[in-house]
Amino acid sequence: MHNGDTQEIHLIDRARSGDEQACLKILNLHKGRIFSYVYRIVRNYQDAEDITLETFVKFFKSLTTFNQSRHLAPWLFSIAHNL
Question: How many other C-beta atoms lie within 10 A of the C-beta of residue 80?
């Protein structure tokens, strides 16, 4: 397992236990790439911001179901794509 994987698992564990700093760290690590992906699809800045925010709302609400043997980014992109 890579060090980045270990750090990501640690952040997710902390977020699951209600650690707001861990949630913010996850958000800050991934929001730029999620926003860029969504913007390329919808071509509207406000819609892309709204969908990006909703992606993270759904992510944090369903955090307990996340399988930590998988990487987080693909799951976030999947949520964004479905929205």
Answer: 23
